[in-house]
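Q: C-alpha cells for this one, please.
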Amino acid sequence: MNTTAKQTVPIVILLAEDNPADVRLTREALKSARMLNVLHHVADGMEAMDFLQRKGKYAEAPRPHLVLLDLNMPRMGGREVLTQIKSDQDLRAIPVVVLTTSKAEEDIVHSYNLHANAYVSKPVDLSKFLAVIKSFEEFWLAVVTLPPTATA
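A: Here is the predicted structure, written as C-alpha cells:
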C-alpha cells in the first residue's frame, strides 16, 4: 500500500500480544494515529496463525498489511509464529515487527535470522511506550510502502 498519496483504505494491523495492558496501550496509541488503521488482536500464537491462515472463527479475517508480534506468548510463541509466517509462500511478504519486552541479544539475532522485518523492545515506562508506538506509526504507516493485501 502506497501511503504517499491520500490514504483512503485503512492499513490492517494484526497485533499478537498476550498482555492486556500492552494491547490497550497499543490500541490507544494507534487510535490517535494520523493514518487510517484497523487493529485486530489475538492473544496467542495459535490464534495468530489461525487469523493469518483464515481458519475457524477467523475464516473471514482480512489479510493484514503488517503484523506486530510478541515473542513470549502462550500455546505457540512468537518465534514459531515468525518461522511459520516466513516459510509460508502466501504469508511471507507480510512485514512482521517483533514488539517485545526482551532486549536479549540472542532474541534479537534469532528474530532477524527468522526474517523479522524489525525488532522493537517495549519500554516499561508508559510515556516511552507511547513514544515508541508513535515512532512506529510514523515509520511503518506513513513512510514505508507496504505490500498489497491478497483478497483471496
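A few notes: The beta strands are 11-16, 37-42, 66-69, 96-100, 118-121. Helices lie at 20-31, 45-52, 78-87, 105-113, 126-143.
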